[in-house]
Amino acid sequence: MNDDARCTLRFAVGVGLAVALAYGVNWSMSWLATLLTAAFLGNRAPRPNTRAALAIVLAIAIIFGAGLFVTVFFYPYPAVFTVIFCLGIYTTFYLGARGTSKFVVLLCTMAILVIPVVGGPTPALALLVAQSFLVSAIAALFCTLLAHTLVPGGTRAPSGADAAVDAHPLRTAWLSSAVILPVAVVSLAMNATSAVLPLIMIATLSAKPDFSVGAAGGKALIAANLGGGLVAVVFYQLLLATPTYGFLVSGFVALALLFGQRIFSDRPTAPLYASAFSTVLILIGGGTGQFGGDAEAGFQQRMLLIMAAGCYVVGALSLLQMPSLQARWMRAGRWLGGKLAST
Fold first, then answer.
1. For residues 326 and 228, which has the higher predicted lDDT (pLDDT)?
2. Which domain holds residue 117?
3. Structural domains counted in the chain
4. CA pair distance 71, 279, nearest whole angstrom
5. What is the pTM of this model?
């Protein structure tokens, strides 16, 4: 078995374990465990050692503890909370530009976005959301470690390009913030709990945005999300015809094998297949749990929202390619930095 096959098999085993655990236990927002497991295993990184695993668990606890603390104590003060909210998003992207783990950056972004939008008005609900995220993240880490144990090998240390730190982290973080802040602030101001799935999708696509996406790259990303949506539609109809736990788990394993072969193929289009599979996980999984609503009645709405989120990210990245708009946004950042420094 070559390295690509090992990585694909480990990816499918990990996703299958996460699906079996998430839908077998079925805690609130348990489907997030499958999305996070796919993010963890969707690369060739080696198995985290014990120290790294404990560090990740500690980071997860700190991330969601901080998100819960800020939401509970500062949400009643909109002006202060909005500043902290925007600063948190910016800091997360800055850490990502400085080389912080993509998984940690994704968790931070999700915690900052989802906890206040869903649970801001109700502290008890904010606590439930934070607990759900925490349990899902720990479950994803467990499934990742177990998958590496069951299917060892095929990994490699990050190359110099993968491990490189962005030469201009402040600039990159500020531009990255421009992608997600408009939707995030509007959702927060309107208390739009229905925006949870689009926000998670935007967070997934914006974890390390590509500002050179261009027209061709943008069309490819939209096509990938559309392809993932079509796969989700077919799989969803099969689930309606065979609504059993065994079929659900085996179906996700089959899809993970199918997408995994493309994700670990070293083709230039490999990241697009990873994005398409994330779309499948969000569309199918987002219909379950307390915040997903009725699965059958809301599937079309979820698909429209997810497609809109993908188009929004592509559009935002394309706009930020325009020199004039990018220059204005950077001037706004320098002005804001000067104001903050003078206070």
1. 228
2. 3-342
3. 1
4. 28
5. 0.80
